[in-house]
Specification:
Blueprint (H helix, E strand, L loop, with lengths): L11 H12 L4 E4 L6 H15 L4 E5 L3 H19 L3 E4 L7 H6 L2 E4 L1 H9 L5 H4 L1 E6 L10 H17 L6 E6 L5 H8 L6 E3 L21 H20 L4 E4 L3 H16 L14 H9 L3 H8 L2 E4 L5 H12 L5 E4 L1
Parallel strand pairs: 1-6, 1-7, 2-4, 2-5, 3-4, 5-6, 8-10, 9-10
Helix pairs in contact: 1-2, 5-7, 9-10, 11-13
Length: about 325
């Protein structure tokens, strides 16, 4: 019933992983292109966990606070409330007290926070009573947070070995992987729990265009990309939403300012706005804390990075999702 409100049948990726995730307790690795419905596959494992271990906890770990906030907002309304379950967010911005963590059925957190919690697992019963650990974006194992993810998985195996509780099931979610076999062996998935789908199974087709830039140094190279990015949006996006990903908070601001400059010389400088007089836009701009974001929103451009306040990030998300603004520049 929870899924029926959004779709009538599973897509090919979800169909193939259904039996393993919903009917077995095997560890699993699901590598599939972005937009393939991997969140639903995680939910299948969650239903199994609640059915087989109704008093144990499900822990979802995402590498970014923005992903955690997105998952909390989605699952709190769509999963926790209909099932009568308690969901708790644990990040640097949200720190629930121990009583809330003990009572929670679902904990949505970041690697650093769950690593800190499980370091003292002997004195924290809620850290031991975990039936399912979901690791989203696990392909980032080779990035800065990789050692923390390694420590979390290793520690959960160690906790199971030191207690009489059933081993914690580990489900990893990732994009398509070149070394899926190695990662699956580390997660102890076995042959039945390893799924690595080609990009051709993407439910929504994607067309890729690659441009080359000659500037050797970072700042000139990023500045060299601004105009081609603007032209690409004007040429290919039409009135559809567009996201520009950059590598830093500072570059988010610089790219947004460059787009504003390009808009300013157009006949209609606010062509990225669906309606300049939209009440939600006008009310939101009055509450914005960041002055660059306020200016950018007036041109239909949003910004999203960890340096913004939670309210500013949420406003950019809402206006972009509602298509009030067309462009979002994000880290």
């Amino acid at each position: 019933a929870i899924c029926r409100a959004r779709f009538t049948h599973f897509n090919p990726v979800q169909t193939q992983v259904f039996h393993t995730l919903y009917h077995t307790a095997a560890n699993a690795l699901v590598g599939a292109p972005t937009g393939s419905g991997k969140t639903v596959t995680a939910e299948l494992a969650m239903w199994h966990a609640f059915r087989e271990h109704p008093r144990a906890k499900v822990v979802y770990v995402a590498p970014l606070k923005a992903l955690v906030s997105e998952r909390v907002a989605d699952w709190r309304e769509r999963v926790a409330k209909p099932l009568g379950r308690t969901l708790v967010e644990l990040t640097g911005d949200v720190a629930p007290d121990p009583a809330e963590l003990r009572c929670a059925d679902i904990i949505v957190t970041t690697p650093e926070k769950w690593d800190g919690v499980t370091r003292l697992w002997r004195s924290r019963e809620y850290a031991r009573n975990v039936s399912l650990l979901i690791l989203d974006e696990i392909h980032l194992l080779g990035a800065d947070r990789g050692p923390i993810l390694e420590a979390i998985v290793t520690r959960m195996h160690y906790i199971a070995a030191q207690t009489n509780l059933a081993p914690t099931r580990v489900v990893g979610l990732s994009t398509a992987l070149a070394n899926a076999g190695d990662l699956g062996a580390w997660l102890r998935t076995g042959a039945t729990g390893l799924f690595n789908f080609r990009h051709s199974v993407r439910p929504v087709p994607v067309e890729m265009h690659i441009d080359a830039f000659s500037a050797k140094h970072y700042c000139p190279r990023m500045a060299q990309m601004d105009r081609p990015a603007y032209r690409a949006i004007r040429t290919h996006a039409g009135d559809r939403p567009a996201i520009i990903f950059v590598s830093s908070r500072r570059q988010t601001r610089l790219t947004a300012q460059a787009l504003i400059a390009f808009c300013a010389v157009e006949d209609n400088p606010r062509h990225f706005l669906r309606s300049p007089d939209d009440p939600a836009l006008l009310a939101g701009m009055e509450r914005v804390d960041d002055p660059t974001l306020r200016l950018a929103l007036s041109f239909g451009i949003g910004m999203h990075h960890a340096g913004l306040t939670a309210r500013d990030r949420q406003l950019s998300e809402q206006l972009f999702a509602a298509r009030t603004i067309q462009v979002l520049v994000a880290t």
